[in-house]
Amino acid sequence: MSDEKQNIKILQGNEACVEGALLAGVRFFAGYPITPASEIAEGMARRLPKINGKFMQMEDEIASMAAIIGASLTGLKAMTASSGPGICLKQENIGFAAISEIPCVIVNAQRGGPSTGLPTKPSQGDVMQARWGTHGDHPMIALAPSDVSEILEMSVKAVNFSEKYRTPVMLLLDEVIAHMREKVTIPSIEDLEIIDRKKPSGTKEEFLPFKADEDMVPPMADFGSGYRYHVTGLVHNEKGYPTSEAKEVDQFLRRLTNKVELNKRDIIIKDEYSLDDASIAIVAYGSVARAAQRTVKLARKKGIKAGLLKLITLWPFDDDLINRLADQVDLMIVPEMNLGQMVREVQRAAEGKCRVIPYGRIDGDLINPVEILEKIEEEMSQ
Amino acid sequence: MKDIIEQYIRKEMFPHIWCPGCGNGIVLGALIRAIHSLNWKKDEIAMVSGIGCSSRITGYVDFNTMNTTHGRALAFATGIKMANPELKVIAVMGDGDCTAIGGNHFIHTARRNIDITAIIINNMIYGMTGGQYSPMTPTGKYGSTAPYGNIDQNFDISALAASAGASYVARSSIFNVNQSIKLMKNALLKKGFSVVEMISDCPISYGKMNQLRTPVKMLEWIKSTMVPRKSWEKLSDEEKKDKMPTGEFLDINIPEYTEKYQQICAIAQQEGGRNE
User: Fold this and answer.
1) A92 vs B69: CB contact, 8 Å cut-off?
2) Confidence of residue B65 (pLDDT cuts 50, 70, 90)
3) How many domains are there within chain B?
4) Structural domain count of chain A
């Protein structure tokens, strides 16, 4: 492809998210103003009316989450975007989307917390909230890109996963990558894999709206398509009607979690740098993974056999990968912009086979490559 | 009449969960008759509810139905209507659901004037959770969380909806069934946000704590309280105290939200918009 045909732009992370979402087929966005996510709503407000998509600024974060679920139920791919305080408010309806299996994407441009916290500073303090923010056992897919191009790519993936698995998907940005500008090659639609939800094919009379196929995902009918059914946040049977019958409840709730957990191999996205011969592994995600990649280069120059495992899919968590890596390396270090959240998952999955060390920073500044290297050297000297 | 109802209900969902003497069934019956009189296809109707006894209504009718989270029915309904304006969207809510936890969504849905019909079943109490006072419990009345009497002022739902920007606002009661059907039909036909407040009963929660222990006593109280709007206007302030007007309070034609959005799409596609 010649340069003039390539669609190359300098984009902000939030703008790249809009590009990716639109490419993936998002045609409904509802949001509420919040730093550092507002540019996503602003981009959607400009772009969606041009393609007969729907944009709404709702009265609050709760309503934004509700509106995208309602819209998705009519067949539109739907997204909302917010940050910590807003994501807290959305939790109730994220649970509703999970139990009623309605595809949607929630972008969280993470800022420092708790509460109003540090609105203009980056954080990775919401990674556990992403997994367990809404109450009860539920599935969750969360993706954490680490640069602007990857935001675009993962926005597409997030929409695809939500459609494929009929579940809410969280796209975890942080203030730095959300606001940073980088060169991005915008792919053409033909070069992308775009996934649409399965539609029912049987008769309308015999339609069982929550009867899953072998992949554990039920086909989904649009409201208004003639397949009339009931959607509820109550635990329900295959017909969609509320049930508290123990066997039905157990089967339903296990399927809900398993449709993501047992399809993990399809959902896990990761990158590895210099891991083959590594005896020290940095496990990082989001903008910190960029710093960690540089750390690996600096360490190698000093003769330290360091490598990087960059997690892009945070949830479901790849236990097996960490466990295998723990067989290989002597030390894992998990730098993150919080006081130690994903490090606990890494420690759990490593099963004591190697030392796993947290490195947390919560002052609102980025973690830089040198400080990760210093931490490694400090640990090596012990 | 029974035949009409049977065309619209999901028989396999019965028996329903409502207590003997509950007004929810009367409201549902009136709503079905209003819909039937319009010859609307079941496929084109989306009915959305929140949480509470009244919100179980959506499970019992054979439309595209959605029983959502507490107070959020109108926010979900807004997403449905905006995404597919061809659907006829009806939201059914209780008084606590709509005016307490859902109060913000209620006023903003009215403000947008989006083409949704809200049926609010006002039994003046949280019934499902055992009789706690709601924003509609009259001052001085009792609830399980107001054992010494309610000191809160209650809302006037109809006045609230009208001032917030709705196109059509009416009130009726489970005692005035024929009027209810007529008002619901008008509301359903209205292009814009329409509200019908249905005064209902809850003998086992509200009645028990307020000397209206039986369904008959509650109906008698409703009968003696409801006064047609025109008669109500002639009453003295003192007489108005214990009465509630019924009928239409607002019926205006103002631009509807999804139609206005279509105009925005046209502007964006022709001119590129101000920010381009």
Assistant:
1) yes
2) very high
3) 1
4) 2
